[in-house]
Amino acid sequence: MRKNAMYAVFAASIFLASCGGSNENSEAQSSTADTASSATLPEVSAETTSSPVSNTVELTADDTMKYNTTEIRVKAGEQVTLTLKNIGKMPKASMGHNFLLLGGGTDIEAFAMKAMVAKDTDYIPADLKSSIMANTKLLGPGESDTITFTVPAGTYEYICSFPGHYAAMRGNLIAE
Ligand SMILES: [Cu+2]
After folding, report:
1. pLDDT tens, position by position, 106-142
2. What separation in Å is there between the alpha carbon of 66 and the centre of ligand 1?
């Protein structure tokens, strides 16, 4: 009887020890999994929210009145080659697009109001040309224009100056 009881205690302690052991194992496994998933997350969000720094920029505009990106990152002080392509199908007269890079401190609303009535110069207001650091032509469907410019470090706004577009078609060009 006494021997049997001792054996039972011994067996129970082995059981507990092996239980503890397997718990530790599964905890170790799940913490490895956590580390792996948190390590991949920033990589994914970096791809979707932050654009790479490149001085060759391909920008598109379409019939939904949008550019394909609202953030462009370039190296400051080095020539940027930017191509805007209008990938829409609507006529230029009703859905033309351009790209105007405006100097820091430009009042975008005031600029757009003046641009809206500058139809004769493709919506580029002649008396505000000093605010424009670079610009493409006004493009109809399927057309594209490539421009080059160099900017000092800073954050600049770009817009499409076609009437009514600047509210949706605008973004930041960050030179660093
Ligand atoms: Cu536009």
Report:
1. 999 999 999 999 999 999 999 999 999 999 999 999 9
2. 7
